[in-house]
Amino acid sequence: MRLPGSDLRVLNLGIAGFADAIASSGGRVTQVDWQPPARGDAKLGRALARLVNHPEVEEANRRAFAAYLAASPVLEGIGTARREIPGMGRRTILHAGPPIEWSRMCGPMRGALVGAILHEGWAGDAAEAEALAARGKVRFEPCHARGAVGPMAGAISPSMPVWIVRDPATGRRSFSNLNEGLGKVLRFGANGPEVLERLAWMREGLRRVLAKAFESSGPIELKPLMAQALHMGDEVHNRNAAATSLLLRRLTPAILAAKVSRAEAARALAFIGGNDHFFLNVSMAACKSMLDAARGVPMSSLVTAMARNGVEFGIQVSGCGELWFTAPSPVVDGLFFPGYSAADAAPDLGDSAITESAGLGGFAMAAAPAIVSFVGGSAADALANTRRMGHIAQGRNPALTLPALDFAGTPAGIDARKVVDTGILPIVNTGIAHRAAGIGQIGAGITAAPLDCFIQAVAALAEALPA
Amino acid sequence: MVSATKIVPNFYRDSVSLMQISARLGTLPGIARASAVMASEANLALLREAGLLAGPIAAGPNDLLIALLGERKEVVEAALGEAEAALSPRVPVSDAGARDIAPRSLEMALEGAPDAGLALVSTPGDYAAAEAMKALRLGLDVMLFSDNVALADEVELKRFAHANGRIVMGPDCGTAILGGIPLGFANAVRRGRIGAIGASGTGLQQVTCLIDAAGEGVSHAIGTGSHDLNAEVGAITMLDALGALARDRATRVIVLISKPPAPEVAARVLARARKAGKPVVAAFLGWEPEERLGANVRIARTLEDAALAAVALAQGKRSRPASAPRLARLPRLTARQRYLRALYSGGTFSYEAALLLGPALDPAPIFSNAPAGRARPLADPWRSEAHSLVDLGDDRFTRGRPHPMIDQRLRNERILREAADPEVAAILLDVVLGHGAHPDPAAEIAPVVAAARARARRARRNLVFVGFVCGTDADPQNRGRQAARLREAGMILAASNAQAVRIAARIAQRAAGRRRAA
């Protein structure tokens, strides 16, 4: 033991009066605002204690975090899902979140998958499509299982165009579908004629324009673009106005130079320019790329994905590979558009929490005071949110900085141990879907990842720990 | 002139930050020109014009480029290093109104207090071992105030701590003073040259207060928790603490306090004590040494003897046992008044009293809810019989109720009940002060003592109250003020528990018509 001088500094956990006695005697003391971790599950608490500052976990997390930092996703262009996504079957549709069978899916998810079946021409009408799905004639897989991500329902069917993002550091490719805009759209479960018409145009017209444009623009570095967008008021999850503009600035000359008709070019430019969220799917694929780089480091407790399927919220951690740790998806308590309330809301849905997993979205709230009021709160709350997330993060991303916090990097690398130990839950900025298919977005808000996911992850890691 | 460049690939910084970095690099001694830019074609052309860039460079618009021109190679390299440091992530300096939250975990608290050295854990027992393990893993020493921690957990924690050069004080460690900082229930004693290690919190409080009263001071008081000297634990903490105090230059004399250890544990502790290189006083209450003690080790029978021996050793004087208390005049007792009733808030005081009263009251039976020495168990801890010693800190009394050191109500009720018993001659009380204890115990106890005595007088009896105050004048409650209040109420106050017990024993002896020295 080391005997202290009179400069002993104490962390006091429990009876607050002991801290007062230390302070009144001239000692330095920090009172810990302690709650029993893991909702008072003492056994899990012990498992956690074995992992805290464990050299093996620390080293694994350093490696996983370094890999996350080293990734530099590049938007290479656009392609067709079945051709680009490795292992994607002909009769497969990808969906958001952890795996789920048709019978358990929520309304918007079913609506979107029906729309995707119709889009592929596998069924003549919605009823036929539902019957097909119910009979197991279509294979449903999580986007994440195929290196992809999609917002809300996240439906990606074989003929859909997808963004291709590549990380030169690992050579790994990540994918996302294209954003359809707001209103009646597939990702909120709408599958009417206007939705299918738009999807058809995106598959033919938009894809062709973008493919030609990329021939002349060449790949686009995404981290610098996202970094710049953070400095322009985006958190690249719920606000993508700046990033979409930056992308459009890069694409416009290329689209105009591409061998496509003026009308085609004009429609594509108007579509992109008219959708503040056009960049969201690109942002998600970039985040997926950064986090996939951090996957598969044994004993690492860093979160590599958070995703929701509208029934369950699931997370994956680096040390546990493809394993999902799930809990019931929370209903988002946010601000609702006129005429709607929490009673109309579907439980939290979509792969877009990949942005928070990568240190953006809610974690980079300090960059986006403009949307704080939209999700309820003040500009000071935005800063506080980012700071709070810093306490459950492995580190800061120096490539993605926050002017309002004196250019500190965004907190990144969610450590499942820290989430359970502090009870601070990762926040997720999110849109809210109506629970009935096809009505669309009815609000937006901030939600939190369920503690149970992280508790399970900690238990799994502790079990993997050599005795 | 030497030029150098550094490319940070895929790294964005806004132009204002880059200009600031450029300006700062330009003012470094020996640097002629400096520039940090995003490597766009336009910026590269500017650098070439400025003579900062000679040949072609493999940097694109998304890369950050630092270009320097300086007098010598070392200067330029140092400046490049500085530039990289300026680009690395920064912890926010100005909070710009951001509110941060109180730390929720030990690890989080360490972020704000990276030089913390010890975690004081007083959470419910179910969680305490886990928190202690986290603290050890984070490199902290631990004081584990919580009790109800499994012995197996204690052994695991202490072994882990020992292997990593850390210490676990506890579980069930009520008192410690490290470097003058009170931890848990501790008294405001002056700092000095006597170090103490104790398995008992009240034992440490009594010894440190008596050292203070004798004009000496305490370097460190280290608690071990009540199970440390069990055979299973093997005194891991006491041995490590003994080693630390032996090495500590501020400590001249070491006092060890415990109930009798398991024999093999006692042997190990005494072997280490012999090698301490300084005097060691061991108060293993009720323990009779079998082996050779060594020139520097001596045994004290009571807490008071231990304190006085340590003080004498520190001052290089001969140790004198505490002089027997003198009682000028004993009140007249009725023929039926024979019994002593001791109502303790400190378990170790009750234990020490049982050991002292055993021979003093021989052959009269003694009962206790925490029997030691000759005492036999009380059939019902709520009802005294004959001579009784009651430890009101016993689990059976504290379950769902505050400890009697914090809340006097339970003991006050018991005082009145004992006082109504016509066979009771004397009531013995401890009054413990210090951090964590009741803010003004005398204010609660004195009126009850006065009322009990008045009621006895109305029944034509004299009821004697004997007690002692364990505390110092520097304590928040102030020992002098507390003592004055209790004397006013008619209580006979002794300097220590041992003295109070002896006085009480004399009263009981006289009542029994015997004349034998205590």
Q: Which helices and strands occur, and which strands form pairs?
A:
The complex is a heterodimer of chains A (467) and B (518).
Chain A: E1 9-13, H1 16-24, E2 28-32, H2 42-51, H3 55-70, E3 74-80, H4 81-84, E4 92-95, H5 107-120, H6 126-134, E5 139-142, E6 148-149, E7 161-166, E8 173-177, H7 193-217, E9 220-221, H8 222-230, H9 241-257, H10 262-273, H11 280-292, E10 303-309, E11 312-317, E12 325-328, E13 335-336, E14 349-350, H12 354-357, H13 379-390, E15 393-402, E16 408-414, H14 416-422, E17 427-433, E18 441-448, H15 451-464
Helix pairs in contact in A: 2-15, 5-6, 7-9, 7-10, 8-9, 9-10, 14-15
Chain B: E1 2-8, H1 15-26, E2 31-38, H2 41-49, E3 64-70, H3 73-87, H4 106-112, E4 118-121, H5 125-137, E5 141-144, H6 151-163, E6 168-169, E7 175-178, E8 181-184, E9 191-198, H7 201-213, E10 218-223, H8 236-247, E11 253-258, H9 263-274, E12 280-284, E13 297-299, H10 303-315, E14 339-344, H11 347-360, E15 366-368, E16 376-377, E17 387-391, H12 395-398, H13 409-419, E18 424-432, H14 441-458, E19 464-470, H15 479-488, E20 491-494, H16 497-511
Helix pairs in contact in B: 5-6, 7-10, 8-9, 11-16, 13-14, 14-15
Task: Give a brief description.
The complex is a heterodimer of chains A (about 475) and B (about 525). With about 475 residues, chain A is α+β, with helices and mostly antiparallel strands.
Structure description:
The complex is a heterodimer of chains A (467) and B (518). Chain A is α+β, with helices and mostly antiparallel strands and 467 residues long. Chain A folds into three domains: 3-34, no CATH class; 42-68 and 295-464, v583 fold (Alpha-Beta Complex); 72-285, Enterococcus faecalis V583 domain (Enterococcus faecalis V583 fold), CATH 3.90.1710.10. Chain A has 15 helices and 18 strands. Chain A has helices at 16-24, 42-51, 55-70, 81-84, 107-120, 126-134, 193-217, 222-230, 241-257, 262-273, 280-292, 354-357, 379-390, 416-422, 451-464; strands at 9-13, 28-32, 74-80, 92-95, 139-142, 148-149, 161-166, 173-177, 220-221, 303-309, 312-317, 325-328, 335-336, 349-350, 393-402, 408-414, 427-433, 441-448. In chain A, the strands form six sheets. Chain A has a five-stranded mixed sheet. A four-stranded antiparallel sheet of chain A has the order 12-11-10-14. A three-stranded antiparallel sheet of chain A has the order 13-18-17, with no helix packed on it. In chain A, strand 10 and strand 11 (312-317) form a beta hairpin. The radius of gyration of chain A is 23 Å and the shape is globular. The model of chain A has no long low-confidence stretch (mean pLDDT 95). Mean pLDDT of chain B is 91; it is low at 91-98 and 514-518. Chain B has helices spanning 15-26, 41-49, 73-87, 106-112, 125-137, 151-163, 201-213, 236-247, 263-274, 303-315, 347-360, 395-398, 409-419, 441-458, 479-488, 497-511; strands spanning 2-8, 31-38, 64-70, 118-121, 141-144, 168-169, 175-178, 181-184, 191-198, 218-223, 253-258, 280-284, 297-299, 339-344, 366-368, 376-377, 387-391, 424-432, 464-470, 491-494. With 518 residues, chain B is α/β, with parallel strands linked by helices. Chain B is 37% helix and 20% strand. Chain B has 16 helices and 20 strands. In chain B, helix 5 packs parallel to helix 6, helix 8 packs parallel to helix 9 and helix 13 (409-419) runs parallel beside helix 14. Chains A and B meet through strand 1, helix 1, strand 2, helix 2 and helix 8 of A and helix 4, strand 4, helix 5, strand 8 and helix 8 of B. Strand 1 of chain A pairs parallel with strand 4 (118-121) of chain B.
